[in-house]
Automatic annotation (TrEMBL):
This is Uncharacterized protein YidB (DUF937 family). It comes from the Bacteria. It comes from Granulicella arctica. The lineage of its organism: Bacteria, Pseudomonadati, Acidobacteriota, Terriglobia, Terriglobales.
Length: 133
């Protein structure tokens, strides 16, 4: 099963919870504006003491993250707040939803720590968003 198939399956589950689907869309929009995009997100996790965790996500060794790890990893970036604003939900909802979405995003957009080019990310982000809408 490919990444978009996996996301499609998750999207089906998320469509039952419209807040999580909104957060997935808000996250993708916020990441397009985030300094460094997905690489910036990975760097933020590393700078905030979660380098081992994000490396394990990127390599597929770790499949989960917690809302607390999302908060710690993105502390000071404004990404949680931006995604909340774009999705029209609270930052707490964003942290919970990101704990489900971020492991997939990191593993598939930056497998083994290799970040896809920005144009490739943009195209993949549009495909991802189409699965949630």
């Amino acid at each position: 099963m490919g990444f978009l198939d996996e996301i499609g399956a998750v999207a089906g589950q998320l469509s039952q919870n419209s807040d999580q689907a909104k957060v997935a869309g808000g996250l993708m929009q916020a990441l397009e504006q985030h300094p460094g995009g997905i690489q910036g997100l990975i760097d933020n996790f590393k700078q905030n003491g979660l380098g081992d965790h994000v490396n394990a996500l990127a390599s597929g060794e770790q499949q989960t993250t917690t809302p607390e790890q999302v908060e710690q990893g993105l502390s000071g970036t404004g990404l949680i707040e931006q995604a909340a604003e774009k999705a029209g939900v609270s930052p707490d909802v964003v942290k919970t939803a990101m704990s489900t979405v971020l492991p997939m995003v990191i593993q598939h957009f930056a497998p083994n720590g290799q970040v896809a080019g920005q144009s490739e990310f943009g195209g993949m982000a549009q495909q991802l968003l189409s699965r949630f809408l």
